[in-house]
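Annotated sample (chain length 271).
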Amino acid sequence: MTISKEALQYIGDLALAGAGKSLETNTPVALVPNSSTLIDLEKFQAGRSRFRGTYATHSLADFGAYVVERAAPDARGFIDQDAMRCVVLFNIGTPATPGHADDRAVLALKATAAYAAVQAVTDTNLSQKQLSDWIEDWSQHLAAVSDEGENMSLAKAIAAVRTITVKARSESDHSVSETSASRSAFDAIEASSKETLPAWLLVQLTPYEGLGTHEIKLRVSVITSGSAPVLKLRWVGEETQREAIAQEFKDYLAKSIQASAKLALGTFDAK
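Output written by the structure step:
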């Protein structure tokens, strides 16, 4: 007698169903008739087999409090200073007893409005109106300084930016002798204002919530190559200051988390 493929499958399913018992896994599963399919039974339990999930926040204080509350013996934290981001894995485990690394807290700092405004405006070509409007919008954070190092009122700084004029001057010299002739030309373009133009803008701000106050120094330059003056702000010592802010971020995390998780610089891919 020939037994069909379907009959053999049915007999196998009956055998599996008859042996029916849970498999030795942390999350309960069982073999059921249907080509030996594994079915996760966790959803049928009163609670989860283990705690897992991701807590995400922009707040340094709330992140530190959560990590301390959830402290685990083998918890590890990874700080990405370039992205101002930190990820703590509570169940990463150890090389000998690795964990699932799916119970985590993620901190991604969000720049304050003033810090975002500074980053957006630096090294950007600005018209007179754009820069004067920017100074007005962020006046509560700004101070203006002349080229001689004297403090200026922001009202005068704004007026100076709005009244810039560009003057062009040309000079030509000619000389002739019995055996030769020469000519030289000199063109000069000068930007001036009825008011004294600010040489520096000093910005007092908190770059990220929870960090300290920093002063950012912006050099004011006027470009006269076009038909209308163009202004540009250069962040003096930008890289050094960004490194200092990143180091403050790391120090704050180390102080707030303390022994709740072991911190390291870099990123970790829990595949």
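Annotation: The chain has three domains: 5-44, 53-110+248-265, 113-171+188-237.
Annotation: Residues 179-193 have pLDDT under 50 and may be disordered.
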